[in-house]
Each structure stands twice: as C-alpha cells, then as structure tokens.
C-alpha cells in the first residue's frame, strides 16, 4: 500500500493499515526529508505525531517512483489545495471583483502534485482519496481531479470519508467511515483492506454525495467556529448548523447526491464532529475569525491545512451555478474574502426575509 502525503491523516491511515497485518508493506511518499528520516529511523512522524510509535512495516520515502513501484492500493492524502491557496484567493474574489489582485500564482493544487508523479502510476492502481475539498478555480472534486491529472479516465477511484480526527485514529479509538465507489467490487476490496475491530467501514456507490458532503462540512465548521468565537450562544449554534445542513442538502441533491448519504456518516456524522468538537482545524479557524483575528495571521500560525478556507470560495460559484440559496456558507466565503465582518454577517443573516 502506498500513501501519498505525510501529513496528519496520511500518517494515521498509513499506521492503521500497517497495524492491521505485520506482513503488509506500507510506504509513505513524503516531501520533507526530516519527516522521512524520523519515520525510517525512529518510527515517528516528528512533525505531526512525535509521540506515537509507528509500526515497523511502515516506511517513508521522498522518491515517487520507489514509493509507487508494485503498489496494489494508493491512499491519496495530499490536500486538494495547499495552505498557500487560502489567503484572499477565492474563485469568488476573482469572478465577482475582477479588479482585485489575482493570487492564483500562489496556488498549489493536488492536480499539480499528481501530474508530477503520473509516469510512475500504474493505470490499474486504485486511488483511495482521503482529501476533503473542492478545487477552487475549477470546482472539481477529487473523483474528477485524479483521473484528469493522471490522464486516465479509467483510473480506479474510491472516496473515503466520515467523522475521523487523525489523532483519534492514531490513538486507536473506535471510528466508522464510508468508502464510495461506482465499482462495487472495488468498494468491497477497500472495505476488506481497511476494516478492523477499531474501524468500521460502510460501502456506498454515491461518490458525489460522499465527496460534496465531506468538502462542504469544512465550510460549515468555519461558520460554527465563528458563532463560537463571537460567543453567540447555543441557540444560535444549533440554528446555524441546522441551516447549514439544509444548504448542503439543497446543493448536494442538485448535484446528484442521495439523501441517505447526506444523513449518514459522511454527511451528518462528519458535520457533527467538525462543527462541535474543538479538535477541528476548520472550526478553530472560525473561532479565531469570530474573535477578531485576521485570516492571514490565523493561517500563518497553523502548520496544518484547513481545507474549508479555500473550499468556501468554490461554494459561491457552485451556489450560482446550481441556483441554490446558501446564505450561511456563502457568508463564510465573504468573511474570508474580507468583504464582510462576522458582525455584519450575523446582522445580514438575522435580517433575511422571515
Ligand atoms: N487530519 C484529519 O483529521 C483528517 C481527517 C479526514 C480527512 N482529512 C483530509 O485529508 C487531507 C489531508 O489532510 P491532513 O490532515 O493530512 O493535512 P496536513 O496539513 O496534516 O498535511 C498535509 C500533507 O500534505 C503535504 N502536501 C501539501 N501540499 C502538497 C503538494 N503540493 N505536494 C505534495 N504534498 C503536499 C504536506 O507536506 C503534508 O505532509 C485533507 O483534505 C483533509 O481534509 C484530514
Ligand atoms: O480538522 P478538520 O476540520 O480538518 O476536520 C478533520 C476531519 O475532516 C474530521 O472528520
């Protein structure tokens, strides 16, 4: 098994797979040589999990050719957009305020990463995407990005999603996730690969539902964090999250998602986790925005990605494209773009027609 990306979730899933069977060979493709060395020499990821011992059948490399050679499964754990994508750079900013500076030259996409490894990818290698986000300038989901970047429309694809903090997986706490693929047999194989007494795996054929819910819950978690940071109380929090769930459902259904997906693990399950639990990075961004911090300062102080920041920009464009009213999720994008303060957003939402 090869895992692309040596961040928190890639490391947690790699450790999970390696822990399942001692004879399983798991390799992680990482960028940082220090992280690589710490995994191979000390069985630790010095940057993300310095206190968790990793299994010895998990090795790291910075060499894509070596990592991908002979792999039967590939777990993709590189963010859809890297941290650089976040500051003041949303699709909405470019399309609605054309005079604002373009920051696209700062963006680094998963697509660019995949194009750099395409020569080493077997066309039959199943890609299991762990990433939760939408590509800002194209609105594509990972199920579109991966085959297009690899120039192989038939690259086998599975989306894995659901409520799962990497740190809790690393601590071997019980977790339940869903794998979605249009290929039922492949979804069952991935279920076999990942399921254990600590990790339940459901299967689904609703790739769109699983992917869109996983991406949008990050934007809603930022909104929930803002409400928390502004100290608006529990009534507001419940009303906001309920409204956000409706907005996700309206859009996702127009995009072809099934209702059962949206009320399941990768929808309601992940929304509850991310909106209500302090461990969420997206929620933390929101709490700090709501307490008056500047986005640039928040992002520069973080060493992990909060995918919702970039995905928020894609939501404005999707709401326009599918003609769905999404006042809460689009307000997050406007706060991120500095077009609206959190206080003005609350006034605006409370003054919408009854
Ligand atoms: N952390 C979690 O609890 C969790 C849970 C479920 C899903 N996810 C999703 O998994 C994905 C990865 O998140 P994470 O938490 O591991 O992020 P992270 O910030 O902890 O790590 C990201 C990793 O990706 C690498 N990376 C970034 N840009 C890259 C590029 N252009 N090329 C190659 N490598 C690059 C970084 O070096 C880093 O190792 C995200 O989409 C996230 O939403 C995370
Ligand atoms: O920390 P967050 O906000 O990126 O959320 C992590 C996972 O997606 C939770 O399921």
TrEMBL record:
Keywords of this entry: Chloroplast, Lipid biosynthesis, Lipid metabolism, NAD, Oxidoreductase, Phospholipid biosynthesis, Phospholipid metabolism, Plastid, Transit peptide
InterPro entries from the UniProt entry: 6-PGluconate_DH-like_C_sf (IPR008927), 6PGD_dom2 (IPR013328), G3P_DH_NAD-dep (IPR006168), G3P_DH_NAD-dep_C (IPR006109), G3P_DH_NAD-dep_N (IPR011128), NAD(P)-bd_dom_sf (IPR036291)
Keyword NAD among record annotations: yes
GO cellular component terms listed in the entry, alphabetical order: chloroplast; cytosol
Binding-site positions, NAD(+): 5-10, 166, 281
Keyword Transit peptide among record annotations: yes
Annotated active site: 217
GO terms under biological process: carbohydrate metabolic process; glycerol-3-phosphate catabolic process; phospholipid biosynthetic process
Domain Glycerol-3-phosphate dehydrogenase NAD-dependent N-terminal: 1-82, 108-186
GO molecular function terms attached to this record: glycerol-3-phosphate dehydrogenase (NAD+) activity; NAD binding
Top-level lineage group: Eukaryota
Location in the cell: Plastid, Chloroplast
Pathway info: Phospholipid metabolism; Lipid metabolism; Membrane lipid metabolism; glycerophospholipid metabolism
Protein name per its UniProtKB record: Glycerol-3-phosphate dehydrogenase [NAD(+)]
UniProt source species: Chenopodium quinoa (Quinoa)
């Amino acid at each position: 098994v090869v895992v692309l990306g040596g961040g928190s979730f890639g490391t947690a899933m790699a450790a999970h797979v390696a822990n399942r069977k001692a004879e399983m060979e798991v390799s992680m493709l990482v960028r940082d040589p220090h992280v690589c060395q710490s995994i191979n020499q000390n069985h630790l990821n010095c940057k993300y999990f310095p206190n968790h011992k990793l299994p010895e059948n998990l090795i790291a490399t910075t060499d894509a050719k070596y990592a991908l050679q002979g792999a039967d499964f590939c777990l993709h754990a590189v963010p859809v957009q890297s941290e650089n994508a976040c500051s003041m750079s949303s699709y909405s900013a470019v399309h609605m305020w054309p005079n604002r500076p373009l920051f696209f030259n700062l963006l680094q996409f998963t697509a660019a990463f995949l194009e750099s490894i395409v020569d080493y990818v077997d066309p039959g290698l199943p890609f299991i995407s762990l990433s939760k986000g939408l590509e800002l300038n194209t609105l594509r989901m990972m199920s579109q990005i991966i085959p297009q970047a690899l120039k192989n429309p038939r690259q086998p694809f599975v989306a894995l999603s659901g409520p799962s903090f990497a740190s809790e997986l690393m601590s071997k706490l019980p977790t339940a996730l869903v794998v979605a693929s249009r290929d039922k047999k492949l979804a069952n194989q991935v279920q076999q690969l990942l399921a254990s007494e600590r990790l339940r795996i459901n299967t689904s054929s609703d790739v769109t539902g699983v992917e869109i819910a996983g991406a949008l819950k990050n934007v809603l978690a930022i909104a929930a964090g803002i409400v928390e940071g502004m100290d608006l109380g529990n009534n507001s929090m419940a009303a906001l999250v309920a409204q956000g769930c409706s907005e996700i459902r309206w859009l996702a259904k127009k995009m072809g998602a099934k209702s059962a997906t949206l009320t399941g693990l990768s929808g309601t399950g992940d929304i509850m986790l991310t909106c209500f639990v302090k461990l969420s990075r997206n929620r933390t961004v929101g709490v700090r925005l709501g307490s008056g911090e500047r986005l640039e300062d928040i992002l520069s102080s973080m060493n992990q990605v909060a995918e919702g920041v970039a995905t928020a920009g894609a939501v404005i464009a999707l709401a326009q494209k599918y003609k769905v009213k999404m006042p809460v999720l689009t307000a997050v994008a406007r706060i991120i773009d500095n077009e609206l303060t959190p206080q003005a957003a609350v006034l605006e939402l409370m003054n919408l027609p009854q």
